[in-house]
Amino acid sequence: MDAFRFRRDRLGLFLARLRLEAGDCREVWLMHAAAVQRSENHDSLTAMKTVFRHRVATRLWHWINAISIFILIGSGLGISNAHPRLYWGSYGANFDPAWWELPRFPAWLTIPASYNLAISRRWHLFFGLVLAFGLLAYMIVSLLNRHFARKLRVRRGDLSRRNLLADLREHLALRFHDPANPTAYNIFQKLTYLALIFILLPLVIFTGIALSPAMNAGLPWLLDLFGGRQSARSIHFLCMIGLALFTVVHLTLVILAGAINETRSMITGWWRVPEEPRP
What family name appears in the similarity comment (predicted)? Predict the structure, then answer.
């Protein structure tokens, strides 16, 4: 009787173990099926499509600007090393109090690497003209093809507190475009590009013109507009800092958004974005 009870208990334990293992297998299978379903859903959500994003004029101006600003900053720092002090007003020299005493910039930041004021000024003047006429041409083309109206027009709803906070949350989540309209600029892009195109770049160009003695003869009112030569020089340097900060932030966002995809879109005009999930 004891032996029979023992065998019965062993059989019960064995059957119980089989049921348990069968249940575990079923749970594993269900988990696997759910994972496969999630993967399929994820793939459908991240299916990519190609859209046309940038016209030729925008792409050309972008790369001309990138080269010009890089050389202008380097040559400008080389020019700054000749007298690394900033003043306000019309005059400033070694014995005048400076509002900012700049450091001497290292060779790896300046163009040319060795100190040569004449060469730095030649590079600076040439690419300053490239920047100025490039901006003028871009403005004319963008008005004619309605690029400004289509891409940079700020509507009343764009500036609402709700929309600004929503765009801020999207940026913090590293989502930089609207899936329903991926080629549209968000409000932060619009405001940044408007400030760059219509404030910062014109300001750096006209303060640079005001620093040219030859241009002073033909446009003497420019110095008065900026409050004197040294004030124009200070504003010019601050604009350079603004352009440098814009470049750093711009490159950081390009990397976060996908450097290869973003760069390809600025070369070819075509941009890959996730397709909208189908209902």
Answer: Belongs to the HupC/HyaC/HydC family.
